């Protein structure tokens, strides 16, 4: 009997674990180690953050689902990896620390034959003074990154809307809280949902809404922007995005590294080296992401974290990490199998893998401050990676070590993304977009790096219907209800 | 003559002045149920193609 341990029960980990359990059957064991007792459909946190959904609408208990799937569930966080074992055992193991199941604080060593690291991001609020600290979100801004954060954001939003009703003009600042953030899409969704709710409440005249982002241009989204076919033209996402902001009267600051947050105020540096300040009554700033800080040790107990993980804490996989200038970046730098190059029984999927480099053009201010988005790894690619890696592990277990590994390169896969711009079955809107491929391949598509036949975007009510239906569909799938396997990632 | 709603924001900032802002018809089509139902079908088909090319 072989044991697969999956670290993280998010999009990538849950997909990997549930498919692996199904493919491996009872002959082998699948263990999930994840610190939360609930699964969260993160994209709908945006609607929780404006009071359009509750925390309960976007989460469900993991334990009964894992029991049904025959998965061993440990509500714990992984702390360190010993891929070669230690002085007393040759078996690979992961050290975990329980966060629930009546064993909070207890440690355990869980041995594994194969491991999938799908621990997602650490929300690195501590990177910007005032945005938060090692314990998480600070007191001056809100966040929508977790269901709890979003619930708190909705309460704070209600407070400023009450002030508007009393005739107090309010300033809203939404965007990224550091020069090296990713996930601009989530902030983009939130600013438009906030605007939509304020407009619906008849309070739009009482709010000044401001966007601040580390993207060097509007619509970069950490992917270097994209070109799509709209109305017979091939149009840059910059034009599309600027239009959405102008239409809604939302001002924007781009190329900004927020370097300090205080009560009601942020200070920032721009790509041209100048600095500025922005005040606010309500602010949602996305934190930068880092790896969750797993350590790794060799058999002798020496720290080999640098061998297994990149400096940003994400796990090294089969990418080409050779440092090279932007002009020499290639689609083939991106990983295909997500296998760790040193320890072949370990894989990473979703946000947890270390990208070879960013996708957007690297940028620095004259003061040397790096201000560029880091690569997004959205839901669909994370799910596809999780499934591909699970497939590889199952084949390795069933067919032996020479089994073919499954591939899911972000330079060969597309992503469908629906960005909400306001909730409502009759008056909601969302930008429905596809990009193909996620990482541009200028050798294959010399013009824009992407296939414009499969890269498109449009905004409207239909987009909202799709986003809302996907909410139910993905929660249905994650609960492993009948026919869950036919729903694509 | 009163300013048309779609032209109101142009004057608000230099950023908006050079942007593309949808007019009344384009905005109405975005929430027109019949048109959006047609778009719903088309967008879904396009997404299914991209999803199937990615698996
Ligand atoms: C507000 C918001 C809105 C978004 N909207 C969209 C959208 O509309 N469309 C889209 O495609 N993407 C969206 N995304 C991105 C999407 O959520 C991510 O791409 C996706 O969740 C990444 O999956 P993952 O499995 O890598 O990480 P996660 O889903 O974050 O899962 C990581 C898991 O690992 C667990 N974990 C953490 N530390 C440890 C540890 N030490 N040991 C074990 N487990 C650990 C976590 O608790 C979590 O369960 C959004 C993100 C945010 C924040």
List keywords for this structure.
heterodimer; A: 489 residues; alpha/beta; FAD/NAD(P)-binding domain; eight-stranded mixed sheet; four-stranded parallel sheet; 10 helices; 26 strands; 25% strand; globular; B: 55 residues; mainly alpha; 4 helices; 0% strand; elongated; binds flavin-adenine dinucleotide
Q: Can you give a write-up of this model?
A:
The complex is a heterodimer of chains A (489) and B (55). In chain A, helix 1 runs parallel beside helix 9. Chain A has helices at residues 11-24, 45-48, 55-58, 62-69, 147-165, 184-200, 237-248, 305-308, 379-399, 461-478, and strands at 3-7, 29-34, 38-40, 59-61, 72-82, 93-98, 107-111, 114-117, 122-123, 132-133, 136-137, 170-176, 207-212, 227-230, 233-236, 251-253, 256-262, 265-270, 275-279, 282-286, 289-290, 295-296, 346-348, 415-420, 430-435, 456-460. In chain A, helix 1 links the parallel strand 1 and strand 2 (29-34). Helices cover 25% and strands 25% of the residues of chain A. Chain A contains 10 helices and 26 strands. Chain A has a domain at 3-123 and 290-399: 3-Layer(bba) Sandwich (FAD/NAD(P)-binding domain). Chain A is globular and about 70 Å long. By secondary structure, chain A is an alpha/beta fold. In chain A, the strands form 8 sheets. In chain A, strands 1, 2, 5, 6, 7, 8, 22 and 23 form an 8-stranded mixed β-sheet that branches. Chain A has a 4-stranded parallel β-sheet with strand order 16-13-12-20, with helices on one face. With 55 residues, chain B is an all-alpha fold. Chain B has a domain at 23-55. Chain B has helices spanning 5-8, 14-17, 24-31, 33-54. The longest helix of chain B has 22 residues, at 33-54. The N and C termini of chain B lie far apart (56 Å). The mean pLDDT of chain B is 90. The chains are: A alpha/beta (489), B mainly alpha (55). The structure holds flavin-adenine dinucleotide. The site of flavin-adenine dinucleotide has 34 residues of chain A, from helix 1, strand 2, helix 2, strand 5 and helix 9. The site of flavin-adenine dinucleotide (FAD) has 34 residues of chain A, from helix 1, strand 2, helix 2, strand 5 and helix 9.
């Amino acid at each position: 009997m072989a044991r697969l341990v999956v670290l993280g029960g998010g999009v990538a980990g849950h997909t990997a674990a549930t498919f692996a359990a199904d493919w491996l059957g009872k002959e082998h064991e699948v263990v999930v180690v994840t610190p939360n007792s609930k699964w969260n459909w993160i994209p709908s946190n945006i609607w929780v953050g404006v009071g359009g959904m509750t925390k309960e609408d976007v989460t469900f208990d993991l334990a009964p689902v894992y029991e049904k799937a025959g998965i061993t569930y440990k509500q714990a966080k992984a702390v360190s990896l010993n891929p070669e074992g230690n002085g007393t055992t040759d078996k690979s193991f992961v050290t975990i620390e329980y966060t629930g199941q009546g064993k909070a604080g207890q440690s355990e060593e869980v041995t594994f034959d194969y491991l999938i690291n799908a621990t997602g991001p650490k929300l690195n609020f501590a990177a910007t003074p005032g945005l938060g600290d090692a314990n998480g979100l600070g007191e001056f801004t809100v966040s929508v990154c977790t269901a709890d954060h979003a619930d708190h954001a909705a309460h704070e939003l209600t407070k400023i809307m009450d002030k508007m009703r009393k005739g107090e003009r309010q300033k809203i600042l939404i965007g990224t809280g550091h020069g090296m953030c990713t996930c601009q899409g989530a902030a983009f969704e939130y600013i438009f949902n906030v605007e939509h709710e304020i407009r619906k409440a008849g309070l739009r005249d009482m709010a000044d809404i401001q966007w601040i982002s580390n993207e060097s241009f509007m619509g970069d989204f950490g992917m270097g922007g994209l070109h799509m076919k709209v109305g017979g033209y091939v149009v840059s996402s910059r034009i599309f995005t600027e239009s959405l902001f102008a239409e809604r009267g939302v001002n924007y600051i781009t190329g900004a590294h927020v370097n300090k947050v205080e009560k009601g105020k942020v200070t920032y540096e721009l790509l041209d080296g100048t600095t500025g300040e922005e005040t606010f009554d309500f602010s949602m700033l996305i934190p930068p992401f880092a790896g969750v800080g797993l350590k790794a040790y060799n058999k002798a107990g020496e720290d080999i974290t640098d061998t297994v993980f990149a400096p940003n804490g994400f796990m090294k996989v089969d990418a080409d990490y050779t440092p090279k200038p932007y002009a020499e970046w290639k689609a083939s730098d991106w990983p295909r199998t997500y296998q760790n190059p040193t320890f072949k029984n370990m894989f990473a999927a979703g946000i947890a893998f270390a990208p070879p480099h960013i996708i957007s053009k690297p940028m620095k201010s004259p003061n040397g401050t790096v201000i560029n988005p880091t690569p997004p790894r959205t839901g669909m690619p994370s799910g596809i990676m999780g499934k591909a890696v699970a497939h590889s592990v199952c084949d390795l277990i069933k067919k032996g070590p020479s089994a073919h590994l499954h591939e899911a390169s972000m330079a060969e896969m597309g992503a469908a993304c629906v960005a909400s711009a306001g909730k409502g079955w009759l008056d909601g809107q969302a930008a429905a977009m596809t990009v193909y491929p996620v990482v541009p391949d200028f050798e294959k598509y010399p013009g824009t790096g992407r296939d414009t036949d499969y890269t498109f975007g449009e905004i409207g009510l239909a987009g909202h219907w799709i986003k809302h239906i996907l909410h139910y569909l993905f929660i249905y799938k994650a609960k492993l209800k009948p026919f869950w396997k036919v729903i694509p990632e | 003559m009163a300013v048309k709603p779609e032209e109101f924001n142009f004057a608000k900032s230099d950023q908006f002045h050079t942007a593309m802002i949808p007019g009344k018809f384009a905005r109405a089509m975005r929430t027109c149920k019949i048109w959006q139902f047609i778009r719903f079908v088309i967008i879904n088909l396009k997404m299914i193609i991209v999803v199937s090319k990615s698996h």
